[in-house]
Design a protein that fits this description.
- By secondary structure, the chain is an alpha/beta fold.
- The strands form 3 sheets. Strands 1-2-3-5-4 form a 5-stranded mixed barrel. It has a 5-stranded parallel sheet with strand order 7-6-8-9-10. A 4-stranded antiparallel sheet has the order 12-11-13-14.
Length: 447
């Protein structure tokens, strides 16, 4: 019974083979609006194409997406070419897009406007504003070696400024190979940058497809990195390419580019001749003025009577000499008076006078010292006598003379009966001698 049932994998593989084998699904053309687009840098891009009635998943592989010359954006209406297949893991059919372009406005115009916006935002249109060399010695021309463009440029340069050297870097100016050749030509110019003063990038008119090589970003970057001023002349005057916008100067035609890069030799020679004539006239006028001035100087009194030149200075010197003498006398007089005053002060301040003054002062001080010492000794003598009298009043000998005595036992003064014993020897000090006695008895004081 189960052999009638297919596995999910088998069914999905069968449906995928059906999609892949159907010739009508191998190349389909679909118009729709980009939906759910999020840019994945350097990767495959996954999004949806939708209209008012339906939606289909779409994938654009990295190789195909990197070839787009415009920026895919959310909500953009596009014309897509691809094949329909089935993604086995999810069982969902999808459109594998091989090429895509905006609907309505052409893809080239869309890409051009987006690149303009990118360069404008980065400020690259204002990066190269270098002045063109007025008198170039050597010009590099990047263009096709055949055709009217190179003939017009060479003819115009030869007619206007034949002394300049022109080096042509031949390149294709349309087609896929032209972009690499133009970039290579700029690299060659950069390697020989010291040789050239100006670079002319030129091409004749054509459609936007014919001029597209000059709208490529790599060509614009080559112009921006060129160390020499670049004049761009691409197409007709109404044709404006990215190369025209990033160059240092845009010319409406190749002939105009040649005119802008060189002056007119005849006009230069005429200008030189006019300047030469003006210079000769000015020199003659200057010589006449100098000659007139020389004559005036030769006739001046300074040269005719040179002594008059220093007479005034001689008088001024005499006046200054007299004034100096007066100042000198006054100065010496002041100094002499000052010396006299100092001499008088010195006489008053001689060592003998100082010694005599100090001797008088010493004598005076010695006398004062002597009087002070006598007075001091008298005071001390009086104090001493008072102290002797007071000491004599408190003398033990005087006390003994009044009838008192001092009793000692064993070299100690007896102050109490408890210090002695019966039959103990006592020493009694009286005013005129010493009495030896023996204790017979002691009797305490009656209270």
């Amino acid at each position: 019974m189960t052999e009638k049932y297919l596995s999910v994998k088998a069914l999905t593989q069968y449906l995928k083979r059906k999609f892949d084998a159907d010739p009508y699904l191998q190349r389909v053309f679909v118009v729709g609006e980009v939906s759910n687009f999020r840019l994945r840098p350097n990767a495959h891009q996954y999004f949806n194409l939708k209209d008012e009635q339906a939606r289909i998943s779409a994938v654009m592989y990295k190789g195909a997406f990197n070839k787009l010359n415009f920026r895919l954006e959310e909500g953009m209406k596009v014309l897509a070419v691809g094949r329909v297949t089935l993604f086995e893991p999810s069982g969902q059919y999808q459109l594998v897009i091989e090429s895509i372009q905006p609907d309505g406005v052409g893809a080239l115009y869309q890409a051009l406007e987006q690149l303009k916006q990118k360069f404008q935002a980065a400020g690259l249109f204002q990066q190269n504003q270098r002045p063109i060399v007025r008198f170039p010695k050597k010009i590099a021309v990047i263009t096709s070696p055949t055709g009217a463009v190179i003939r017009d440029i060479l003819t115009t340069i030869k007619r206007r400024y034949p002394i300049v050297q022109v080096t042509v870097f031949p390149t294709r100016v349309q087609g896929k190979e032209s972009v690499a050749e133009i970039v290579k030509a700029f690299e060659q110019v950069k390697q020989r940058a010291t040789e050239f003063d100006t670079v002319i990038l030129a091409r004749g008119g054509g459609s936007i497809e014919d001029l597209w090589s000059f709208n490529e970003e790599v060509v614009a970057q080559a112009i921006l990195s060129c160390p020499i001023p670049v004049i761009s002349s691409i197409g007709h005057e109404t044709d404006i390419t990215i190369a025209d916008l990033v160059a240092d100067l845009r010319a409406p035609t190749p002939t105009a580019a040649a005119e802008l890069s060189t002056p007119v030799m005849v006009e230069l020679l005429q200008g030189i001749a006019a300047h030469q004539e003006r210079l000769i006239h000015a020199m003659n006028k200057l010589m006449r003025e100098k000659q007139k001035r020389l004559t005036t100087v030769q006739q001046s009194y300074v040269l005719m009577q040179p002594e008059r030149l220093y007479q005034a200075y001689s008088q001024q010197l005499d006046a200054l000499t007299q004034l100096l003498n007066e100042y000198q006398q006054r100065y010496f007089s002041q100094k002499n008076h000052a010396v006299q005053l100092l001499t008088q002060r010195l006489l008053l301040s001689t060592p003998q006078r100082k010694v005599k003054q100090h001797e008088q002062q010493v004598n005076f001080l010695t006398e004062r010292l002597s009087r002070s010492m006598q007075h001091y000794l008298q005071e001390k003598q009086q104090v001493f006598q008072k102290q002797i009298i007071q000491l004599d009043a408190y003398s033990p000998l005087n006390i003994l003379a009044r009838g008192y005595s001092v009793v000692t036992a064993k070299n100690e003064v007896v102050k109490s009966i408890e210090q002695v014993d019966t039959n103990q020897m006592l020493s009694i000090r009286v005013s005129d001698g010493l009495i030896q006695a023996t204790v017979e008895a002691t009797q305490p004081e009656q209270t």
